[in-house]
Every structure is written in C-alpha cells, then in structure tokens.
Amino acid sequence: MKIAVFFIGALQDRGFNASALEGAEAASRLPGAEIEIVSGTPFEPSAMMRGLEAAAGRSDGVIVIGGQGNGVAPQIAAAHPGRAFAVVQGAVTGPNLASYEVLQEQSAFLAGCLAARLTQSGTVGHLSGHRVAPGLKGRAAFAAGVAHADPSVRLLTGFCGTQDDSAVTEAWAARIASEGADILFTMLNAAREGASRACRAAGIRQIGNVSDWYAADPALYLGSAVARIDLGVLQAAEDMLAGVSPEAVRHMGLAEGAVRLALAPDAGAAVAEELAALARQIAAGQLAVPGGYDGPELPPPG
Fold this sequence. Notes:
By secondary structure, the chain is an alpha/beta fold. 40% of the residues lie in helices and 23% in strands. The protein folds into two domains: 2-103 and 229-256, Response regulator (Rossmann fold, 3-Layer(aba) Sandwich); 104-226 and 260-283, Response regulator (Rossmann fold, 3-Layer(aba) Sandwich). Helix 1 links the parallel strand 1 (2-8) and strand 2. The chain is globular and about 55 Å long. The mean pLDDT is 95.
C-alpha cells in the first residue's frame, strides 16, 4: 500500500514535524507499506488543498500531519472515496477519513503547574505559532495548569502566527520577558531558536514541547511537555494497512504513554512528586484538562 505522509511547513523543524517524521520512518518498516514523504507545503489553504490533491492522486492513502488538516482533508477525502485518509492531531472523521490525536494538552497542563510552582516573579508566559486546534488546546491546558497550581500567578500568552520564523518568535519572547515573565512555555517548531535567544538574553527559563528539550539544553530548560506525535503517525499507518478507519477520533495520552512531562532535577523532589500525582490523576480520568481559554491575550510586539 502506498501511503503519502503530508507535512506542512519545515520538515526538519526540531519539533512537531520532526517527531511525526520519526513515525513515518517507523511506518516505512511495516510489512506492505510504501511511504512517500511530502513536505514543504506552506501554511496557506489553497496550497494545502493543491498539495493534498496531488498526493491523493498518486497514493492509496494519505496521512496529513497537523491540525491544519482539519480544514482541507474532509473535502479531498470526499473527492477520493476509494482512498484512505487520516489527520494526525485531527478532529475530523468520515467514511474514508480518520483522526488521531496525541493529547499534548495533558503534558501542557503539567507544564503549567510546573511554571506556577517555580516562578519567582509571579508571572509566566506562553508562546505558540499558528492558531490551530491543537495549539489552542495546548494553551488552554497550560493556562489551566497555572491556575490549578497557583491562581495568583499572572499569565502572558500569545500566538505569533509562525512556527518557523525565529526573528518573529525572538521579538515575541523578548516582549513577554520584558513584562515580567521569568518562565516561558513555547509551543514552536523551527522558530524555537529565536525564542531561546530571547530567553537567554533575558535570563529566564523555558519549558519546551513535543521533544525532551531539557535533555538538549538543561541550562535553559526547566522541562518539556513531551508529545509522541510519531506514535499517532504509526498508528494511522497501521490502521490503513489493516483496512481500519476508526469512526471516532482516536486519542493517545498519558495513559497510553504518548505524552509526559520531562522535568529538570532542579525543579525539586516535592514538585516532581506533585506533578507525578497529577499525571496519575489525569491518566485515570480523575482530573479533566480544560480545552478552552477565554482570558486576555497579548497583541503583537510593537
């Protein structure tokens, strides 16, 4: 079976797409799978539609990476009823369309608790790129985690409109630091480096997402809201090969080992124990992670 894995934005982004690529590479080793990587499509609706249509025309199935697929996959799937489609981090389903969601909001909630527990200034920040459903849910979860741990902590939050432009994210992160945040949670891809430059310049700590950023840069990172996007891609490919198309969105979170909070040792034993207990509650369904945020949001810098 020929399966196209369709990426939007930079492929080697040290973030979301990079994790998904690991899943595509794992899927290429499945019996009967022929995987094509389609990358470089810009975050623009007409370009995504054209690219997805072309991929569908030469494949038996297409896996779209990212919540951006929610807006384009249903139309293309309906036009190709004989082919299988899936969206990883999706929320759309149909006769030949499935969605898989790695619940990164669960680890984002824990990241919010971490930030609220360790802030010295009483102000923490969040910065994300595109305003898509997974990013919005991640922001909502982080905000809820902050409030859960300490309702008195102030949150500065914004969407900068790019996952890959480091000049933009550097300006945003510097703005958030200038307003008093001493911890910044970043949900970014290739543009993470710009935010990191601003954090180093301001002397503040960062919490990453998707990958284990603490392991990559322990001096800068307090932790990372790890999300195994590769597991969603691999599951989508396995289901396509088996001729299975789940009618409901398939979720993968703490209980399935798809997300976790990587934590720096200097967070302290008490905080680590508190966060581990919260993770167990979330995994068991005893603590719900909110999916919406209606608080204030920062305007663009300048």
